[in-house]
Amino acid sequence: MIAAMICNHRISIITGHYGTGKTEFAVNLALALAGEEKKVMLADLDIVNPYFRSRDRRDMLENANVQLISSSQACSDADIPALPSEILTILENRNIRGILDIGGDSAGARVLARFWPKIVQEDYQLIYVLNANRPEIREPQNAIAYLRGIEAATGLTCSGIINNTHLCGETTPAEIRKGAALTETVCQETGIPILCHVVEERFTENLSDLEEPVFPITIKMKKPWE
């Protein structure tokens, strides 16, 4: 039931610097919630990064009873800066759990501004995903400044931090622990709690001593050339 613990609000908005692994986390979270018999909708609203798109895994998600909506349904290879009208279903249907995967940086986060009046009326959480291997946010003060920029762009308040430190195929437990240390510092300086540490299933036993929950994932998102 760890997914329900992480997603303890009806709507979870996943944000952070590009390249932190937001989409991988969002997809795994949606699948885990569906596995816990929750009715789940995942919105792919990332119109900034063309490389990792949850809509590329539409069949897998829908076979797992995750309903996917995206910014470019008519042309799977396009990234059109337009939001789907179906996002209103996530905001208005209180019988579903909604996950919104939005683009990295404040420009990507700004796509939610038009929905601010509806979002703030709902049970939502803004989740900030950290990867200590991204040069722009590897220092605590830079990571915090980036977080505050996203809050300013969205008009929303962050209520949880995720450690998703990785090096793709070269990830090690030591790298994840490095990310845990960064996340702890950001937590202490902002007062925003750590929700979990995202780790590949193969590392779960090696990281069971971490104070916060460990959320095991399997890699679903592949690079376009893989």
Describe the structure.
It is a single chain. The protein has 226 residues and is of the alpha/beta class. It has one domain: Rossmann fold. The chain has helices at 2-6, 22-35, 58-63, 87-92, 105-109, 116-119, 140-154, 173-190; strands at residues 11-16, 40-45, 66-70, 97-102, 124-130, 158-163, 194-200, 214-217. Strands 3-2-4-1-5-6-7-8 form an 8-stranded parallel sheet, with helices on both faces. Strand 6, helix 8 (173-190) and strand 7 form a beta-alpha-beta unit. Helix 7 (140-154) packs across helix 8. The longest helix is centred in the last third of the chain and has 18 residues, at 173-190. The radius of gyration is 16 Å and the shape is globular. The two termini are 32 Å apart. Mean pLDDT is 87; it is low at 73-80.
Task: From the structure above, extract its key features.
Rossmann fold; 8 strands; alpha/beta; 8-stranded parallel β-sheet; globular; 226 residues
Strand content: 15-25%
Which fold name is given in CATH as the topology? Rossmann fold
Contiguous low-pLDDT stretches (5 residues minimum) are 73-80
Round the mean pLDDT to the nearest integer and report it.
87
